[in-house]
Each structure stands twice: as C-alpha cells, then as structure tokens.
Amino acid sequence: DIVMTQTPLSSPVTLGQPASISCRSSQSLVDSDGNTYLSWFQQRPGQPPRLLIYKISNRFSGVPDRFSGSGAGTDFTLKISRVEAEDVGVYYCMQATQFPRTFGQGTKVEIK
Amino acid sequence: QVQLQESGPGLVKPSQTLSLTCTVSGGSISSGSYCWSWIRQPAGKGLEWIGRIYTSGKTEYNPSLKSRVTISLDTSKNQFSLMLNSVTAADTAVYYCARDEASVLRYFDYWGQGTLVAVSS
User: Fold this and answer.
1) Which residue of chain A comes nearest to B5, CA vs CA?
2) Distance between alpha carbon B65 and the CA centroid of its chain, in Å?
3) A76-85 pLDDT, tens digit each
4) What phi and psi values does residue B115 have, to the nearest 5 degrees?
C-alpha cells in the first residue's frame, strides 16, 4: 500500500494568518492515465470528513477559495490563505491512484 | 442533495459479525457513475477504506480486511450494507458510508454522519 505521511501533525495558527499542510506519498501518485489522484478532506470535531480538494488542486463544490492545493509526484500541499475559526479540525490527504486508497494520519489545525 | 445515514448495532461481541446498513436519500443508488464505500475510523485515529460496491454488484475490498468483509446492495430499498465477521477489539471504530466516484475523479464526495461500533463482551 502507498503510505501517506503528513507534516506537521499539529498546526497552531493565528486567526487571519495562513496555514500550510504537507503530504508526502511513498510512491509517485501519477497514474498511467496521466492524472494524479490526490484529495484533501477536512474533519471538524464530531463531523464526518468533508471533501475539499481533488486531483491535487480542484476545489469541490462550495469550498471557499481560501483553500488551495498544489504539488506533483510525491509531494503535495494544502494551504489556507487566511485561517478562520470554522477551519479548526483535522485535515487528511488521500491517494486514489493505487488500490487500495490510503489516507494520511491527519494534521490538526487549531487556533493559537 | 444526496444524504447517507448509517444504522446498526452499536455493540458487537468479540468473534461475532458486525452488520451495518447505509440508507441513501436524495437520489437513486443505481443512477450515475458512482459506487458506494465503507470507511472506518478508530477513536482518535486516521481513516481506513474498507471496501466498495458498484451498482452492477461488483465489489472491491481492502486486502487487509478482504477475508472478513462482505458488502451488498439492495436497490429496492436504496441501501447498501457491510458485514465484518470475526470481530475483535481492533474493529472498534466509527464506521462511515460514503458515495464514491471511482473512475474519472476518484473521490468520496458525500458521507454519512458515522456510527460508532464497539466490540466488547
């Protein structure tokens, strides 16, 4: 299985300031079809995960534009341009290039 | 808007079978290019994909659980179900059902609220 490693595991952020989460895969996530199937999810306390970003950088419907994704190959980043109180939670990356899909261990974003 | 809701016993004894059902509303489980997945999350830990079922009835399971998992579909009730046999304490988790776009986009776009299943005697 592809191992997804996120850093940091915890990210205290000041409201209005940016936050960045890194996700590294143990193998390249470029599929044979040329696409890279890397997604990001947000999990607020007591809630199910919510899809934010798919295929590295595409925001899902209704996701604010302060969330952005980037990266290639084995290294990917989720950025929040200006953290708001509602952004508190745990963020997970997930690869869907190789079977089975696997998730990172999560990064907790909290307000300082 | 598609909605999913898990249901089933919250407590299962060791060595027995865990059974959960996911009811889909706001759309037909048979329509579109989607399939249907189960994902679990032990308390305070990360997410593990369990398996999926296509509307054709084809199933795919995580190799780590394949020997113990069965996922089935009931289109007449707009439901799909999970059975996990020979459970141990390690199977204690919140279990989520999710809609799965498994071909072009490859993501889980709608999730149920999750249901906690504890394995204990």
Assistant:
1) A48
2) 12
3) 999 999 999 9
4) -135, 135
